[in-house]
Amino acid sequence: MISVFFLGFLFSFLGYTPPSVLNMTALQIRLNGNQKEFSNFTLGVSIIVFLQAYVSIYLTAYIHQSPTFLIFLEKAGIVVLLLLSLYFYKQNKKEKKITAPQKKSKKSFFLKGVILSALNMFAIPFFCGMAALLMTFNFIHFDTISVFLFVVGSVIGIYFILFLYGKFAHKIQQKTGNLTNNINLVLCFITAGFALFTMLKFII
């Protein structure tokens, strides 16, 4: 049964390793802020991921019976991603105009983690896919302990990859140069790219 925990950890760690809104934002916060601000952000992300992973387990059976629900989530995700892309574009322009350092609210980083994680429309389909795969091979069942171990493993996997992005933030900055100085612009392209990719699924 402990294998469910490690599989949840492994899939989440690998799934969230590529550059995304969450880990690139974590990188930005660590570069421009301090450890406490970074911790508040990752805590906000982790709480929402816990809820998303938990809900996804029980949505998996329903989605198999009603594929149209997954299609609805994907279409809603396109709208959210486009709005996020616009938000990050405006943030990039706004940062270019700011010359004096701004005092930040400590709570804002926790709320930012909560909001960005909640707006991550790929999270529920991702966790549903993980759960469906594990159910296919009988690695997970709907008993309380299996579900709890899967969810905790998933949350720790995502927390760990965010932790690594924060720990090696300055090394990543040295390797990528100007890329990390324009993270909001990078996030704009990432979210727009995901939105375009999802739209192409409905066109092709």
Nutshell version of this structure?
By secondary structure, the chain is an all-alpha fold.
What would you note in describing this structure?
The protein has one domain (2-74, 101-183). It has helices at residues 2-15, 21-32, 35-65, 67-97, 106-118, 123-136, 144-167, 169-176, 183-203. The model has no long low-confidence stretch (mean pLDDT 81). By secondary structure, it is an all-alpha fold. Helix 1 runs antiparallel to helix 6, helix 1 (2-15) runs parallel beside helix 7 and helix 2 packs across helix 7. The longest helix has 31 residues, at 35-65. The protein contains 9 helices and no strands. The protein is globular and about 55 Å long. It is a multi-pass membrane protein. InterPro entries: LeuE-type. This is LysE family transporter.
Q: Structural class, from helix and strand content?
A: mainly alpha
Helix content: over 70%
Mean pLDDT: 81
| Helix-strand sequence | HHHHHHHHH
- Beta-strand percentage range: under 5%
Largest sheet: none
User: How widely separated are the two ends?
Assistant: 41 Å
Computed Rg: 18 Å
The general outline is globular
How many structural domains are formed by the residues? Answer: 1
Secondary structure tally: strands: 0
